[in-house]
Amino acid sequence: HVQLVESGGGSVQAGKSLRLSCAVSGITFRRYCLGWVRQDPGKEREGVAAIDVNGITMYADSVKGRFAISKDNAKNTLYLQMNSLKSDDTAMYYCAADLPDQSRCVGYEYNYWGQGTQVTVS
After folding, report:
1. What does the alpha-carbon distance between residue 95 and residue 101 come to, in Å, rounded to a whole number?
2. Contact in structure between 86 and 14 (CB atoms under 8 Å)
3. Number of H helices, E strands in the chain
4. Calpha distance 26→118 (Å, rounded)
5. In the beta sheet, which residues pair with residue 97?
6. What are the beta bridge partners of residue 6?
7. How confident is the model at residue 42 (pLDDT cuts 50, 70, 90)?
8. What secondary structure letter does DSSP report for 101?
9. Whole-angstrom distance, CA of residue 24 vs CA of residue 45
């Protein structure tokens, strides 16, 4: 049974930081493509950051230089460090996972999703 459980969301003022965590179980964590996706009501879902099995990362242009994705294979945990938060970052943040497609992690399409954690920036 695959489980992804996010934590660390909250309400903060603009300019502040938050660190999201995602505890993952039921999969061989180190073999999976991992990512963070966000959605605010009335807006399209947006891929925020992703990390592949080798630790290579990619980011949406809107968060480059402010957010950092990382993972701890020993702890089966995915992180998202969010700095210099803006009101536009307000959204529900979901962590997600999937096996590579022909050994590559592509985009933000995943089969496994967490329940989300709310981030509100005012």
Report:
1. 18
2. yes
3. 0, 11
4. 24
5. 34, 112
6. 22
7. confident
8. B
9. 22
